[in-house]
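S.,

Sequence below, as promised.
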Amino acid sequence: MSKKDRAQIARNNGAKSTGPTSEAGKAKVSANAVKTGEHVEKLAQFLPPDQAVICLEDRPQYYKLLKQLIEIYQPVNQVAGAVVRDIAIAQWQIERLHTCVTVAWNLALIDNAAKPCTLVPELAEMQTMGRATELLIGGKGTVSKLNRDIAQLQRAVAALERRLKFIHTTFPNQAKQQTQPTKTQPTENTTVTDPPIYITENSPEVIAAYKLQFPNREIIILPPDDVAKGINLEDNMPIAPRKAA
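The prediction came back faster than expected:
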C-alpha cells in the first residue's frame, strides 16, 4: 500500500470520529482546551489570583480588607508587609468560619424541622433547636470545632501583631531614615586627613553621586540658606551633579 493510500484511509477514518458521546467523556475531553486557553472562563472561579480567596468568596472584599489593614498597621518594610498580609489571610479565614457556623446552624435547623415532632405543636420549634444544638454543640460537634478553629486563628493574629511590633521596633523604615539626618555617616575607610564634602542638595541621587565620586570622604548636608549667609566652603565643595533637564 502506498503512502498516499494510507493517508487517504487515515482521513476517511478521522472523518467518521465525532468525539465522545457520553457526558463523562465530554467533560474529560473539555479539559484539553485549557492548554490553548479555550473555555478557560469555566475554571476562572477556581483559580483566583490570591490564595486566600476561594471560588465562592468576594475577591474585591478581600483586597479591601488587606488595604484597610495596611492603612491600620502601616508596615515599614517588605517583611512587615508580609506579616500584614498573613494577618489579612487569618482575618479572612475567621470571617469564613463565622459564615460556616451560620450555615451549619441553618442546615441543622432545616434538617431537624423536617423530623416529626414528638411534643405538642407549640414546642415544635424548641424541639428543632434542641436537636440541632445536640448535633452541633459539644464534643465533636461541627459548631464547637469551628469555634475552636476561630479562637486558634485569633491567637495567631495576636502573635502576628507581636511580630509586627518587633519588626517595627528592630528594623525601622530605612527610606524614612534617609530623609531625617542632615549629616551622613562616614565610611569605614574615612581618614582624618580627608576633608569632608559639603553639599546643599539633600537628594538621594545627588548624595549617591558624591559617594561614588568620593568614596572615602564624609558628606555633610547643609541647608541652602547657610551658603547664603557667607560660610566659605568653596575649597571643599566640588561641582554638584545635576539632573538632566
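Strands lie at 197-199, 219-221.

Coffee later?
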